[in-house]
Request: fold
Amino acid sequence: MKANETTKKIKANKLISSNERFRRKISFEILKGLFMNYHIVTYGCQMNLHESEKIAGVLKGLGYEKEVPLEEADIIVFNTCCIRENAENHAFGNIGALKKLKREKKYLLIAVGGCMTQEAGKAEILKKKFPFIDIIFGTHNLGELSSLIEQRRRVKKFLLSVHDERGETEDGISPVRTSYPNAWVNITYGCNNFCTYCIVPYVRGRERSRSAKDILREVEGLLEEGYKEITLLGQNVNSFNSDGRGEMSFPELLSACASFGGKYRVRFMTSHPKDFTRELASVMAKRENVCNLLHLPAQSGNNRILSLMNRRYTREKYLEEIAMLREMIPGCDVTSDLIVGFPTETEEEFQDTLSLVEEADFSSAFTFIYSPRTGTKAAAMEGKIDEETAKDRIMRLVEKVNENTRKKSARFVGKRTEILCEDFDEKKKLYLGRNEEGRMGYFASDKNLIGEFVTLRIGQANGVSLYGTEENRL
Ligand code: 5AD
Ligand code: SF4
Reply:
């Protein structure tokens, strides 16, 4: 799953507005009668971004009006990630930076949730290091967030609610969606795979599928509301219904999600190569509106490392799957996640990952230096790779991936491609949106085209970005 860590350092003491200066002077009792606002800081993957939309839903339900800059918020919620050490360090740094703000704004509430709080002993460390935190809630406790905040508003007391497992898959929370025209829809929660480097199964619990009926109802509702792209989310979407709760297989669900009327697209992530099937490839091929882009994390191109990672496929099987997909969808784009510096990885084994980029012809890939996570099997393995070697490997890997990305983007130059316009870039003064292959297309327009499908003629490519002119509107 794509990691999208917030690297921005939070500055809690920027210039504040006169309205905010007034608010800081009045008591919480008076403030309660005024509109209160929130700020959510999100780290990590799409799953967390969507969870933050649900946190916003909880806050709106409690009467918080809107999202405002951090220093003006009446409640700040951190939605944390613990997949790699640097994600945790960013959260620690940014929570710590709030000490002064919390001292100045007595009524300010600070809540910390997300994966980090589910790690063994982490909630206690957080509370000890940052005694000004008001609420710590786990990934299984979103349904309780509302009552936790209400309790904390009544009684000045630290509240902790971190459960081990959540059985149910419906939390009944309406998200405040922030990604129009795309909407994220959870299909599974948790993971059963226990890749030896990964902490997700420990902090997200066992895999649970939502029922297809609930998912389809949600998708239909979103399309009625005008969303034009649906992204189905799960740690391993291919094993949807492994617990029998989903009522159908993932290819069947994908096909059903793509069969409503009107023009829209369907994406999904993440697929595990051990569960990728011909049936899924054939749904991608048959359904026009399922995007021709597969994110299939390989992690390594070497069989010994793949086995140590407990990935349960070989390089050969991985390449066969891609070949099968491209037999059905010629030139289908594939992206990946790759890790370097896994314990005992040799230079030759790393070279196998480098060569996989070319052989699999990845359009792009997220590249990571292995980060030991306490409690995982790999963390106890011998043969740690030194930092210098790992950094050298990642630089060479990034170079190789970029080379391939440039090559794959160049094929769009001089051609037409359809994008779904999703935003306006204030700096570039250009509209932007992705084509089905995931490339970001930029173009100028005097009309606001957000939410519309636009055909561009591409004049130039730069990395994963394409620059073009509008041909016609569909
Ligand atoms: N170290 C480095 N990368 C990791 N990932 C997961 N756990 C680790 C770790 N301990 C990467 C994998 C996964 C992506 C979401 O994060 O590549 O696919
Ligand atoms: Fe982690 Fe592996 Fe599960 Fe992905 S499939 S979340 S890498 S354990």
